[in-house]
Amino acid sequence: MIDVIYRLTAPGRFEIAYEELPLCEDQVLLRPRWLSICKADQRYYQGNRSPEALKAKLPMALVHECAAEVVRDPTGRFARGALVAICPNLPVQTDEFIAENYLFSSRFRSSGADGFLQEYVLSAPDRLIPVPQNTSPEICAFLELISVAMHSISRFERFSHRRRERLAVWGDGSLGYITALLLRTLYPQARLTVLGTVEEKLSYFSFAEERLDVRRVRLVEKESLCDHAFECVGGAGCRNAINQMIEAVAPEGTLALLGVSENFVDINTRMVLEKGLRLFGSSRSGVADFARAAAVLEQNPILGQYLERLVSRVLPVRSIEDLHHAFLLDGQQSFGKTILRWEM
After folding, report:
1. Are both 7 and 141 inside the same structural domain?
2. Could you give the C-alpha distances from 95 to 40, 99, 103, in angstroms and in order?
3. 312 near 338, Cβ under 8 Å?
4. Residues 39 and 138 in one domain
5. How far apart are the first and last CA of the chain?
6. So what's the pLDDT on residue 189?
7. Calpha distance 19→2 (Å, rounded)
8. What is the pLDDT along the chain (344 residues), one digit of tens a residue?
9. Residue 274 sits in the same domain as residue 328
10. Are 245 and 304 contained in the same domain?
11. What is the CATH number of the domain that holds 239?
């Protein structure tokens, strides 16, 4: 069958391509239905990547956050019409020690491989996760981002000591919101602090015991704000955030780094050594993280009410003009997710 693919060929320019889609007996045929725009998609669309990166990646179909409808499943694992989330990570090998999302051989949809701006998509069945029955399709559209936050928490649980009475999240954006919400759910007895720079955005974090403006946080010597911390800032602001975390976390605490920065970041290694801190990076996610995220949503229906706050707008997309409109609107917002009802 012929597939229609909507590829970004240059910043701000989409073009249509037609390609043969070979139907295989071990692959599930899917129709993307609900998509969510990520900051990584915006960096390509706006041209905020290096010329070398743009030349290497484009042309490419964007978007890696997707809930899709099963059209055909010859393996028999999924019913026709079922809504599933698609893990965008495409591993070609397994490793005893290295997770699928850290293997250099793995490919990733919308970063070196076409994303979900397509009429149809083929996927191995083990890349598909049934969406939680009690969760709206708009939220299921960004289950991938929820799984990224869940992945960082799973790694935190591996690397940190077991005193987890005070947890803190730096970052008042969507990733910070989801990470803090999952920590609130998984560690209900811990005191949760969220730190950001925008009062309006911090007001969304009503489930946290403490919401602080990072510019007004002043620690006295030998005082600590938290046992462990998560950095969800990224960009130019992550340097200050990481160094404030190093200052604020208790000795032998763990710092999870999730924010993406295009530039090198200077950090206070003297204090890292003096406190015996553990810093670890966390990027993307795997099928196990999707499954755990879906299970937590299924078991905690109230999470859906909090996650609905992230849905800034839901836009039907029936043309390339609609697609441009969605990206332009999304680029103007500072908080929340733009959801596409994909009708192309």
Report:
1. yes
2. 27, 7, 8
3. yes
4. yes
5. 16
6. 97
7. 6
8. 899 999 999 999 999 999 999 999 999 999 999 999 999 999 999 999 999 999 999 999 999 999 999 999 999 999 999 999 999 999 999 999 999 999 999 999 999 899 999 999 999 999 999 999 899 999 999 999 999 999 999 999 999 999 999 999 999 999 999 999 999 999 999 999 999 999 999 999 999 999 999 988 887 667 899 999 999 999 889 999 999 999 999 999 999 999 998 889 999 999 999 999 999 999 999 999 999 999 999 999 999 999 999 999 999 999 999 999 999 999 999 899 999 999 99
9. no
10. no
11. 3.40.50.720
Residues 324, 337, single domain; the answer is yes
d(CA 263, CA 240): 13
Tell me what pLDDT residue 261 has: 87
**SS3 at position 29:** strand
Contact 120, 106 (CB under 8 A): no
pTM above 0.90, yes or no: yes
CB 148 within 8 A of CB 174: no
- Domain boundary at 246, 263, 281, which? 281
Same domain, 153 and 232: yes
Torsion of CA 190, 235, 38, 63, to 10 degrees: -130
Do residues 266 and 203 make contact, with C-beta atoms less than 8 angstroms apart? no
State both tokens at 216.
Answer: 């007004």
Amino acid (1-letter code) at residue 281: G
Distance CA 113, CA 105 (A): 13
Cα four-point dihedral sign 237, 149, 30, 33: negative
Are the C-beta atoms of 67 and 141 separated by less than 8 Å? yes
Residues 262 and 228 in one domain: yes
Q: Please check whether residue 292 is in contact with residue 154, taking contact to mean a CB–CB distance below 8 angstroms.
A: yes
- Domains contained in the chain, number: 2
Full residue range of the structural domain in which residue 105 is found: 2-146+285-342
pLDDT at 73: 97
Give the containing element (helix H, strand E) for 226: strand 226-231
**Structure tokens given for 193:** 């602090």
Same domain, residue pair 207 and 261: yes
- Phi and psi for 172 in degrees, rounded to 5? -110, 25
Q: What is the largest CA-CA distance in the chain?
A: 67
